[in-house]
Specification:
Layout lengths: L2 H10 L8 E3 L9 E5 L4 H6 L9 E3 L7 E3 L25 H9 L4 E8 L1 H9 L1 H10 L1 H24 L4 E5 L12 H21 L3 E5 L8 H7 L3 E3 L3 H4 L1 H8 L4 E4 L6 H4 L2 H15 L6 E5 L9 H22 L2
Parallel strand pairs: 1-10, 2-5, 5-6, 6-7, 7-8, 8-9, 9-10
Antiparallel strand pairs: 3-4
Helix pairs in contact: 4-5, 4-6, 5-6, 6-7, 10-12, 12-13
């Protein structure tokens, strides 16, 4: 069974021959899953990689992605009248996507929308400003939401046309203690747009991957109902692995690492191996339903021996196949 087929079956819970692995930023040659993003416009590349074509900048002091600054729509709301979003359909954005798909015929290729939706809106408007807009300027908030999600809808369409196997979104909604915005507001304002994205992806026969950090427990059922096929949760311990499985196992696939806030950073190699086995056994116990993410994270304190332990643990799980792993 190829990587492509195993991933498709793991997401669909249709009996993959092995647990698929995604090496995200190191050892990518071992990965069953490969990510490709759509390109920035020529203008934004000319301005430098720290400057977004949406007009904000990312300030970096280390190897992490940095922090957004200089939101172009901060302050006077009338700025939006003079603000033009980027063109999502420029052909040069997708040339590398097509060639990447062609170069990886046996891999499962995920087309990444990147940081999206609500998070992108906070970068453009400013976090506090956007939260105030939700309560005080609902028409303005909806106008900005339609602009950002409308752009992303065309990106989704183009990625699917390029032949990717799945499409991923990264939109963080959680804090350590719960969802940062009233879930009822997310359901009424954001979920209809998410569902439009996900329905389009499914029309093309592709699968939906959605990343959201923090404790998003309250809105997981909404994402499943809107059509998410695989949830990327980087902090399984915030929920509890068994609790996740009891509530959502068999209803959605999980695309998770050894917890990035706890065991991956602080655990011993033996604890890491046990945790990886538990993820696969519990979340993957639905004729599939689990894919492992392996990300080297020394920038936030992951020791080298822990990265190697994570890598070896998941390679061992993959190597013995699903029949034994799910026993």
């Amino acid at each position: 069974m190829t990587s492509k087929e195993a991933c498709r079956r793991a997401v669909g819970m249709e009996g993959p021959a092995f647990t698929p692995l995604c090496f995200l930023n190191r050892d990518t040659g071992l990965s069953d899953i490969r990510h490709v993003g759509f390109g920035w416009s020529d203008e934004s590349r000319a301005k430098g990689l720290t400057h977004s074509e949406w007009g904000f900048t990312m300030h970096r002091i280390d190897e992490t992605m940095g922090q957004p600054a200089d939101p172009p729509l901060a302050g006077d709301p009338s700025k939006i009248d003079r603000y033009a979003p980027p063109d999502p359909c420029r052909p040069e954005r997708y040339a590398q996507v097509k060639s990447f798909v062609e170069a990886n015929p046996d891999k499962y290729v995920i087309g990444s929308v990147g940081i999206s939706g609500f998070n992108l809106m906070t970068f453009i408007r400013g976090f506090s400003n956007l939260l105030e807009d939700m309560a005080l300027e609902p028409a303005y908030h909806r106008r900005l939401m339609d602009m950002v999600f409308g752009f992303e809808h065309e990106v989704v369409r183009n990625l699917c046309e390029c032949g990717v196997d799945g499409v991923s979104f990264a939109d963080d909604w959680g804090t350590q203690r719960g969802v940062m915005v009233d879930p009822a507001f997310i359901r009424s304002e954001y979920m209809p747009w998410y569902k439009r994205h996900f329905d389009l992806i499914h029309e093309y026969g592709r699968q939906v991957f959605f990343h959201s950090c923090g404790d998003v427990w309250e809105i997981i059922p909404d994402f499943i109902g809107a059509g998410v096929d695989a949830l990327n949760l980087n902090q399984p311990d915030i929920f509890g692995i068994e609790r996740l499985d009891r509530a959502f196992g068999g209803k959605v696939a999980f695309f998770c690492p050894v917890d990035h806030q706890t065991v991956a950073i602080q655990g011993t190699p033996a604890e890491i191996r046990g945790y990886a086995e538990r993820l696969d056994r519990v979340l993957g116990g639905h004729d599939g339903g689990f894919m492992a993410m392996i990300e080297e994270y020394h920038s936030v304190g992951m020791p080298e021996e822990n990265y190697l332990a994570i890598k070896d643990a998941f390679l061992g799980i993959r190597g013995r196949g699903r029949a034994r792993a799910g026993a």
